[in-house]
Amino acid sequence: KVGTVFLLVAFFLIISALLSVEFFQGSLHFRCHTQDHIRADGSGRVCNRQASIHSAASAFGTSHATLEATLGLCPARARCIFHATAPYNGLISFDSVMQAFIPLLLTLTFDEYSEIMYMLASTHYPSAIIFFVLVVALGVRPHRSPLIP
Fold first, then answer.
1. Contact indicator for 20, 131 with CB cutoff of 8 Å
2. Measured between alpha carbons, how far is 72 from 122 in angstroms, rounded to an integer?
3. DSSP H helical segments within the chain, as ranges?
4. How far is the C-alpha of 7 from the C-alpha of 9, rounded, in Å?
5. For the chain, how big is the Rg over CA atoms in Å?
């Protein structure tokens, strides 16, 4: 019985890692920095390099400040700059299947998963939220999953 649960969790982690790499690869490498102060360590708020403030503001009919948190936009006078390392010195990343296991294991154990979810949601809203809810709902208790009789 324990072996079956282990195999089920391993299968779930592999499928989740493959999906997360497919959807979120490279997303956490972009951070907000001002023109005069670019941090060498790569710290800073994760941002969405593809979001456009003008198109988003007109689409939602709202202000820049409201959209900053929702769409991962940088504050005024800041730019979204690429960094070679992902957050936490490259530990939290979806760039490869092996690297995706760390944030997925943190999610399954409820250890700081909300911070990872919000970082990813700033680049892929709302798909990141949906992904994390599904990982938590289906992966936390595999022996009581609604998909398994």
1. yes
2. 4
3. 2-24, 53-60, 64-71, 97-108, 113-121, 127-139
4. 6
5. 17
Q: Which amino acid is at 15?
A: I
CA-to-CA dists, residue 126 to 1, 72, 77, 117, 121, angstroms = 37, 12, 26, 10, 6
Q: What is the spatial distance between Cα 73 and Cα 27, in angstroms, rounded to a whole number?
A: 13
User: pLDDT tens across 103-147, in order?
Assistant: 999 998 888 888 999 999 988 888 999 999 999 888 776 555 555
H-only helix segments in 51-112: 53-60, 64-71, 97-108
Residues 6+ apart with CB under 8 A from 57: 63, 64, 67
- Fill in the amino acid letter for 13: L
What is the number of alpha carbons within 13 Å of residue 101 lying toward its C-beta?
7
Residue with tokens 């997925």: 104
Residue-level length of the chain? 149
Question: What are the residue boundaries of the structural domains of the chain, listed by start?
Answer: 26-141
Beta bridge partners of 34: 37, 78
